[in-house]
Amino acid sequence: xxxxxxxxxxxxxxxISLISLTALVLILSIALLVVALSRxxxxxxxxxxxxxxxxxxxxxxxxNDEPAEDxxxxxxxxxxxPLVGGLLFTKNGDGTCRLSGLGNCTDACVVIPETxxxxxxxxxxxxxxxRGASGVAAVQIPSTVQYIGERAFADCNxxxxxxxxxxxxFYCDAGGVLYSKDQSVxxxxxxxxxxxxxxxxxxxxxxxxxxxxxxxxxxxxxxxxSPDEWEKISxxxxxxALLSASKQFYSERGGK
Length: 256
Known about the structure:
alpha/beta, Leucine-rich repeat, LRR (right-handed beta-alpha superhelix), 5-stranded mixed β-sheet, 4-stranded mixed β-sheet, 15 strands, rod-shaped
């Protein structure tokens, strides 16, 4: 006769089977979860790589735009283009003109032409045309000039000599000093003349304004006439060097 099965052993086996099944299900669930997580990360990494390439591709485009601007900046050869120097002339409207200023001329020895670049005859030099021109050391006046304005060569602190064409019918020079043709008017004494003394002709009746302005080396004036005759000379304003220089009066015959 077979023994009766123990109810406790059946319950134990059932519990063991249930635990094993639960463990198996749990293991499968964890495995599925791991696979799902690994798959979900793949698009994220792919999208990140795509985003990193966008700025890298745009950066070269900005660099490629810069060389295109270089050709625009480089063709600016303005300093290489020499400025053509020249005196400034003003038309009179009748085929003649007057010299109005230095313009772009930087020559130390200024040679005034008989005609302007446009073909007008140079007949006048304006008042103050060269006044204060520190770079002018010498001036040559042509035969065509008929009128020279007041203070035309005043305060040129490097001026050593003024010469006039012998063919000029209105002006002349004597030892670098500018006179009217008959030497009745003294127009300009060279500012930097280093002689220290000057003989003024007795024919002089007028000395222009600033003819002896800022003449540091002039110390003595010789005049072949009397003090009364000297006082009759009309002396323009600002001739400080002339007034401060000592005067020596004498006669052309040797008397004092």
